[in-house]
Amino acid sequence: MGSELPLSERVEAILFIVDEPIGLVALAAAVGAPVPAVRQTLEALGDDYDGRGRGPRRGFELREVGGGWRLYVREDLDPVVAEFVGGQAPARLSQAALETLAVIAYKQPVTRSQVASIRAVNVDSVVRTLLARGLITELFADSETGAINYGTTDALLQHLGINSLDELPPISPLLDDGADGFDEGTLR
Fold it and tell me: What highest taxon heads this organism's lineage (predicted)?
């Protein structure tokens, strides 16, 4: 488990990956060390990050919040982070957006109503979000109905780290992929 590595490094590694405060007991279990040793390590790391240790004050700090420990950006650096984040598109997609994106990726070209039929919910706002993020694009309008058909973009391939849609994992053979009844616009 890496228990031969220094405790401070093991604790720091866990603190860097948690997205919610982690309790002292859970942290001790994660690094395989006694609670008192982990408590002492947290205090030493906090002092180090605050510039009371071997090096300068860091741009982040260790806080105990809500019964757990987590790294946070220092409050006086909030404007720097806000400016950076404000210039970036949000990195995360909602579950609804991910599901919609998956349907489009596997079924393209596909219309909004076909996606809505597969997901059994209205997808209008999600499709607008995916378009705005550049993950999908309008491919063409159906000559009979005028319905716009959507497909994925190269930006999605880059985000997924693949070169083509052929590299998408196969849809599980245990799951109904929606092929039956797809052309009719409804699932059976």
Answer: Bacteria
